[in-house]
Amino acid sequence: MKIENRQQVLLVVTLSLLGLYVANLLVYGPMVKWWDARQTRIKELRQEVKDGKSLIRRESYIRGDWANMRTNALPNDPSQAEQQLLKSFDGWAADSGVNVSSVTPQWQADQGDNNQDDYSTLDCRVEASGNLGSLSRFIYEIESDPTALQLASIELAATDDKGQQLTLGLDVNGLALISPQP
Questions:
Q1: CA angle 49–35–32, rounded 5-degree value
Q2: Could you give the number of structural domains in the chain?
Q3: Which residue segment(s) compose the domain that 19 sits in?
Q4: For residue 141, is pLDDT > 90?
């Protein structure tokens, strides 16, 4: 093979390789990235469709749970809500045999990001005393009641040397849903 032919062949091979490299950078690489992003988006959309179908199948249960939550929430009126909660504490105390010494209610406004006042919470500090069995029964009564309450914290302390008399400090949060105005 002559040197001229060899140079021409090397030039054609080099230009071909350079063309393939440029095609890889400008066409193949972006196409692969686009295809991978498309595949990822398809997977996300399939998962969203699957989640949506699951929600549709569970619609009646979800609506039932929501209706149950709305009926068990505290009333919108602050005085009625406080009165209902105080009556509940009196009933639970009578059922369990504890002595409730104080209930301190305090309203907290909605702290959500959407700035819509669609709920409020009634935070109560409850101080009670009794023996271990009656205090545990009191806590059970609160937890098993269908009212929308949450025990935020529990503090238990002994008031005598033998631990027979105990004091209980509870932080209880109650939910009040505000009905939308027509």
A1: 160
A2: 2
A3: 3-57
A4: yes
